[in-house]
Amino acid sequence: MKKRSLRPLVPNFVTMLALVSGVSAIHMAIWGRWRAAILCLFASGLFDFLDGKVARLLSVSSRFGAELDSLSDFVCFGLAPGLILYHWAMDPAKHLAALSDASLRADASALPWGIVLILAACCAGRLARFNAALDEEEPPYWEHFFVGVPAPAGGFLALSPLLFAMALPQWESLFRNTWFVSSFVLFAALAMASRIPTVSLKHLHLSRAWRQIVFPAVAVLIASAVAWPWEVLGGLAVLYILAVPLTVVLFWRTKAKWRRENPEAAKALDAADAADEALEEDAAGDAR
User: Fold this and answer.
1) Partner residues linked to 160 by β-bridges
2) Of 133, 188, 199, 279, whose CB has the highest number of CB atoms within 10 Å?
3) C-alpha angle 99/90/117, rounded to 5°?
4) What percent of the chain is helix, strand and coil (3-state, nearest 5)?
């Protein structure tokens, strides 16, 4: 038997840790352990961040790993946040009463089940679009942007009401309101499925001067998160939402600048897009 290196398995093992952390978050939510559920989901996000870094560090990136990562992301950030909020938004008294009285089951949960399904469907669509685009070369102006909100960020945006309630327990009744929770979940779902540009730090290269500022700031942020986890996570969710329109403006400026500096490449890109649209229209006509 040929000797096989275990190096390619290392990033997949990290991805599996992300997956089991996400499933554990659902388990914690079923038992009403909300803090443990959030921490499990946070661990899942951390492992999801690390698996790609490990794969690139070991030079063992593969299509299998990318597909496994997408499946893990769907469970952790498409299913888990919706299920956590579904159980958290339940009225415990109504839930117990509904176990013995079927007529009360429709009112037992404050968060409509349909919103949970929308979140799962939008996350699945976002990940499928991402996988389909792996073999396509994005225009240079997309280098520092994602198409739509990434699955991990979308999952934590959906969890914002629970984070707010943890940070401000005196206002829990407001954050647990049916319409408030449903609105955040729906916003996160549509943001993931959308094509709005959001910031990406994958290709960010900091100069030495900037690193002297950013690294201490990150250290302060981590220390603050250890001391006040719910306040920091809730604040980051608010900042991310506020940053979306600013990111859109920055993207359009970056795109306009690139088109001005590369007119020939811009014309070729427009021609390729027009050809793709024509092929899609022909395929749709054939299907009809």
Assistant:
1) none
2) 188
3) 100
4) 80, 0, 20
Tokens of 224: 């603050």
Residue 33 Ramachandran class (φ > 0 left, ψ -120 to 50 alpha, else beta) = beta
With both helix axes pointing from N to C terminus, report the angle between 80-88 and 178-193 in degrees, rounded to the nearest 10: 170
- pLDDT higher than 90, residue 230: no
What angle (nearest 5°) sits at the alpha carbon of residue 45, between those of residues 40 and 51? 120
pLDDT digits (tens, 9 = 90+) for 14-38: 999 999 999 999 999 989 899 999 9
Nearest Cα neighbor of 188 from 82, 38, 114 is 82
Dist CA 15 CA 198 (whole Å): 24
C-alpha dihedral sign at 26, 196, 15, 44: negative
In the three-class reduction of DSSP (H, G, I as helix; E, B as strand; rest coil), residue 158 is classed as: helix
φ/ψ (deg, to 5) at 113: -65, -30
Whether the Cβ atoms of residue 109 and residue 89 lie closer than 8 Å to each other:
yes
Length of the chain: 288
Question: Cα–Cα distance between 122 and 245 in angstroms, integer?
Answer: 21
Rg for the chain (alpha carbons), in Å? Answer: 22
d(CA 37, CA 269): 45
Give the bridge partners for 146, in sequence order: 198
Flag whether pLDDT at 282 surpasses 60. no
How many CB atoms within 10 Å of residue 111? 21
Asked if 186 and 108 touch (Cβ cutoff 8 Å), the reply is no
